[in-house]
cytokinin dehydrogenase
Amino acid sequence: MILFFSCITIKINLCFPSIPSSLKTLSIDGHFDFEQVEHAAKDFGNRYSYLPLAVLYPKSVSDIATTVNHVWQIGGGSELKVAARGHGHSLQGQAQAHRGVVINMESLQGLKMQVHTGNFPYVDVSGGELWINILRESLKHGLAPKSWTDYLHLTVGGTLSNAGISGQAFRHGPQISNVHQLEVVTGKGEVVNCSEKQNSDLFYSVLGGLGQFGIITRARISLEPAPEMVKWIRMVYTDFDTFTRDQEKLISGQSTFDYVEGFVIINRTGLLNNWRSSFNPQDPLQASQFKSDGRTLFCLELAKYFNHEDMVLVNQEIKTSLSQLNHIPSTLFISEVPYMEFLDRVHISEIKLRSRGLWEVPHPWLNLFIPKSKIHSFAQEVFGNILTDTSSGPILIYPVNKSKWDNRTSVVIPEEDVFYLVAFLSSAVPSSTGNDGLEQILIRNKRILDYCEIAGLGVKQYLPHFSTKGEWKSHFGPHWEAFIRRKSTYDPSAILAPGQRIFQKPIAYS
Ligand code: FAD
């Protein structure tokens, strides 16, 4: 240590080669790996790869605090960065650290999951816990979290650093609106408990904070009684205005449904045939006569939770609610599945795609939040002109209520009371130069973003990634100053910079 500190005073950059050996001196319960680090330079996006110097496999919160504190002591001049890696399902290297330290959050074993029952049930979990495990554990007590993502093989720390949204968000808000308390390791390596009442600025900074203010080591997540079953419903619209009017009606007031999403289909054949493997048409004869070919279709997806004993009542409620919607009657499909199967639905697709070698391909996803007042202009241009088909992946579209989002968190959303998530979830065919290739999808994404910019739609990116300070400033808009203040409070040397290409000191503070 003495050698190390004297080295700092001479010239910090000369210390860089000795960083691995200085990390080796740390007294921790887990371990560092300096050799097998390639996997930490990969993510779901499959487009960015930054090799770290070391991967920390922490066994305790104190391992993380010791490591972060050590990096803080070295000082910003070393340019050593720390990135928490949840399940590595980022799209653009957000959980990577070029020549830095990646903390493998899933190996954090300090806390056993603990479900607390009672009037206001909750579960205490590690920041590296997968949501699927939380579901399994809380179901043992007849409980479950209220707000989800469509895919559950993601970590608590990973989704809380963004927002965590799905079809339940219209009612419960995103996952960041359903957390009571966090334990966070800040940029100085201090372990701090925070909540709405205690260290609240840190609490709200970290929620939606893109991993920029600290590392979430523990979270207390709100639970509700879990239903046994789900009525899972799909139906088709050809008219966008009618589709969005129904979606907006469904998320306002006392909706019958527990989940509201939707997706767009452009120039695809056999849509209803695909549904038939898991859904029953309400009217099989009419459904068989519906021809989707070539048309742009908007599919509404709804879910209603229920317990077996309430079946009759629930069927009646659904019938009444559906009668108030304006979908094409012959395209109504209903299925009934266990709650667990509904929530874990994307994992089934993952297994299929993996078996065909189609999971680990580049994923140039584009996720946008679009103000309600602009969704029609957006749809006209993007679904009408820019996109010619939806063969490279699903396009989700659904509205949420801003009132369910807490404006004290770090997440950036549009100003209007209702805004839409539009998610272009593309998979690129490796080495293709056609429409399904990476290059063409990126060109298409850029056209969409350029259009939003030129038309002044007030769109915000979800799961954002930018390369310049100007772009980040524009993303944060009026919240930029607050972001900088929070960054300098909790990460004064800007060491926690998973998006370090963007957030490193000279760019964020200059
Ligand atoms: P990582 O990719 O490992 O990390 C994400 C970010 O969080 C990084 O910046 C990282 O440094 C930081 N981070 C990770 N752990 C911590 C921690 N403990 N403390 C502080 N910072 C941390 N998102 C939705 O909202 N809704 C969806 O429906 C949805 N569906 C998805 C489906 C699939 C198939 C995939 C691949 C992603 C989906 N996502 C969805 C996006 C997902 O929420 C983000 O990609 C999320 O970041 C992934 O979580 P992860 O655990 O893999 O995090």
Notes: The longest strand covers residues 214-225. The chain is about 30% helix and 20% strand.
